[in-house]
């Protein structure tokens, strides 16, 4: 069976995965703090795929979502030049299966769109709030009718921690973890408590307000994803956690836009 490769380019990491059908057979993360050249990313990609037991020649479709515009070129270029595939870049004009009921559809982040595509496909006919706990924590409201209504964005746990470290003279950087108690006994415990429980309170408040405004207070299905979502698994805010939601949205986008060819110009695509 042919393979499909999906990339989510975030502010902190490039998160990628290879699918055989619906099965995620390999996944990886690469720091996105410095921008690689086309050739540098190609070397990394080909070596990594082989390390994971994947023959690059077996990949026949690639999809890319990015919230970092200047990182799209090296990733797409590496795929185009070294894999011979024209990648599907999730952007304005691409079929998503969603109705974007927002003031500026082009401003909605590609990662949020990918999450929404996957969520409505996995949980059809459900009113949803999707919470992605990455560098920024994003909340997206998507109705049972596949209407994307908008949501909220707040600084994520890692970003908040780094802001404390940069903006103060004596507060250190800490490991982000679930504290045993809110009452910290050391400076590190105080910071960990504030980060963890402060974010928990923020999520509860935003989910409640979004549910009230979008669904009249009726509790929708809340889907968690992103690197920090498992920290909150036991706090009753998520109905389901799907760690690879964004990759599965990109996989579904390939189907929605047909298969992209090995070599050649990109197909014209539209909403």
Question: Strands, helices and their partners?
Answer:
Elements: E1 3-9, E2 13-20, E3 23-31, H1 38-51, E4 59-66, H2 69-82, E5 88-89, E6 99-100, H3 110-122, E7 128-133, E8 136-142, E9 147-155, H4 157-167, H5 187-215, E10 221-225, E11 240-241, H6 245-256
Parallel strand pairs: 1-4, 4-5, 6-9, 7-10, 10-11
Antiparallel strand pairs: 1-2, 2-3, 7-8, 8-9
Helix pairs in contact: 1-2, 3-6
Polypeptide structure, described:
It is a single chain. With 271 residues, this protein is of the alpha/beta class. The chain has two domains: 3-89, ATPase, nucleotide binding domain (Nucleotidyltransferase, domain 5); 99-248, ATPase, nucleotide binding domain (Nucleotidyltransferase, domain 5). Helix content is 34%, strand content 24%. The protein is built from six helices and eleven strands. The strands form two sheets. It has a six-stranded mixed sheet, sandwiched between helices. The protein has a five-stranded mixed sheet with strand order 3-2-1-4-5, sandwiched between helices. A hairpin with a 2-residue loop joins strand 7 and strand 8. It is globular.
Q: How many domains, as an integer?
A: 2
Q: If strands are numbered along the chain, what order do they take across the biggest sheet? A: 6-9-8-7-10-11
CATH architecture of the largest domain: 2-Layer Sandwich
State the major sheet: 6 strands, mixed
Low-confidence stretches: 259-271
In terms of structural class, how would the helical and strand content be classed? alpha/beta
Identify the quaternary structure here.
single chain
Percentage of residues in DSSP E strands: 15-25%
Question: What's the alpha carbon Rg, rounded to whole Å?
Answer: 19 Å
CATH superfamily of the largest domain: ATPase, nucleotide binding domain
What count of helical segments does DSSP give?
Answer: 6
State mean pLDDT (0 to 100 scale): 92
- Our measurement of the CA-to-CA distance between the termini, rounded to an integer number of angstroms, reads 29 Å
> Within the CATH hierarchy, at the fold level, what is the topology of the largest domain?
Nucleotidyltransferase, domain 5
Number of extended strands: 11
CATH class of the largest domain: Alpha Beta
Residue share in helix: 25-40%
Q: H/E series, N to C?
A: EEEHEHEEHEEEHHEEH
Shape category:
globular
